[in-house]
Amino acid sequence: GAVVSQHPSRVICKSGTSVKIECRSLDFQATTMFWYRQFPKQSLMLMATSNEGSKATYEQGVEKDKFLINHASLTLSTLTVTSAHPEDSSFYICSASRDRGAFFGQGTRLTVV
Amino acid sequence: QKEVEQNSGPLSVPEGAIASLNCTYSDRGSQSFFWYRQYSGKSPELIMSIYSNGDKEDGRFTAQLNKASQYVSLLIRDSQPSDSATYLCAVNIDDMRFGAGTRLTVKP
């Protein structure tokens, strides 16, 4: 199956700092990647759709200046949580699409203290 | 707003029984449908995809699609305790939106 690698798997940061999360498709080229956030015992919430070479499309209610997405190549998308606050603590997951479906990275558990 | 609805459960079945998971969607133009399994604290993994009306079988899993009714389901035969997880329905490969998920517990 397709492999999507996400790093880091866990990160703890201080309030007010920024955190960058990387999502790589290892064995296929992904023109589209998705970023999700999941709070405990809740469903995946789509944050944004990342398209290679163009601006990301953000879902309603997601602050584009706070959650910066860069899809610099066909195998790499990054999500930067800027000026993180404790309420940003969550499980962030990326996925990359190919013809058989979307495949997920391992997820990043972000804790802001 | 495109929506994907699932019975939130929880659904509990005894080991060896058939588990039936249901999903409805609002976008009549949807063409691709997916079922994912998510264990607690882990990211989702793809179980099955289905694109045409009817049934698609893969081992103990059967996906059923009815586009006229905008309904897709997943049947798990001979349920095992290891099947205990949250099952997520997703629609359209271009903007993968997920249902809330159904939590399944298979009791030994």
Mind explaining what this structure looks like?
The complex is a heterodimer of chains A (113) and B (108). Chain A has 113 residues and is an all-beta fold. Chain A has strands at residues 4-7, 10-13, 19-25, 32-38, 45-51, 57-58, 67-73, 76-81, 90-98, 101-104, 108-112. In chain A, the strands form 2 sheets. In chain A, strands 2, 4, 5, 6, 9, 10 and 11 form a 7-stranded mixed beta sheet that branches. Chain A starts with a strand and ends with a strand. Chain B is an all-beta fold. Helices cover 0% and strands 54% of the residues of chain B. Chain B has strands spanning 4-6, 11-14, 19-25, 33-38, 45-50, 54-58, 61-66, 71-76, 85-91, 97-98, 102-107. In chain B, the strands form 2 sheets. In chain B, strands 2, 4, 5, 9, 10 and 11 form a 6-stranded mixed beta sheet that branches. In chain B, strands 1-3-8-7-6 form a 5-stranded antiparallel beta sheet, with no helix packed on it. In chain B, β7 and β8 form a beta hairpin. The mean pLDDT of chain B is 92. Classes of the chains: A mainly beta (113), B mainly beta (108). Chains A and B meet through β4, β9 and β10 of A and β5 and β10 of B.
In short:
Chain A is mainly β and 113 residues long. Chain A contains no helices and 11 strands.
Give the secondary structure arrangement, pairings included.
The complex is a heterodimer of chains A (113) and B (108).
Chain A: E1 4-7, E2 10-13, E3 19-25, E4 32-38, E5 45-51, E6 57-58, E7 67-73, E8 76-81, E9 90-98, E10 101-104, E11 108-112
Chain B: E1 4-6, E2 11-14, E3 19-25, E4 33-38, E5 45-50, E6 54-58, E7 61-66, E8 71-76, E9 85-91, E10 97-98, E11 102-107
